[in-house]
Amino acid sequence: MVLLFCFVASGTVTNLFPTIVQTLGYSNINSLLLTVPPYVLGVITTFLNSWHADKTGERYFHITLPLYFAVAAFISAAATTRTAPRYVAMMLMIPGVYTGYVVGLAWISNTLPRPPAKRAAALAAINAVSNASSIYASYMYPESAGPRYVVAMSVNCATASIAIIAATVLRFILVHLNKKLDRGEEVEGAVAEGEAVPGQAAKQGF
To answer: Taking the model in full, what pTM does it have?
Structure first.
């Protein structure tokens, strides 16, 4: 829940992205046109990252590596008023957040225990809580805070960093549970005691 909440919270920058791009000083039409490339790049990186994560079966680095780019982008956007560095930062914000988000959502779904009803209820709760960040997001981008929006970028940077920490904690937990599966021990929501097949945790476990 913490992982997805922080993902969505750092992604609230998209709610007012045209307003942020407009602080570059271009006309309304040009500003709107400049919002397109970050989303196009985001679509490409999200597709490639998801495809590679599915092909390799790896999740953690496919989630966290894009977030490091997001953190760097938020810091850069808040630290300078120069046009070129700020637009580069904007180009990285969208891909940085959403490239790993879809993999994170799949990872959480795969690691939730059975039965299906419990998983469905948990996913609904996680989605509801994670989207609560939209309640406060619009208040972080007042016109007076432009062009750097230091508070908003700082909050986004912090939530992206917490998402990295949450993913790391989850990874350690899952590694521990996979070792239990390899030993043939019971893991709630996965297998009963004696049903695990040694060496298959990476493929069939968490």
So the answer is: 0.84
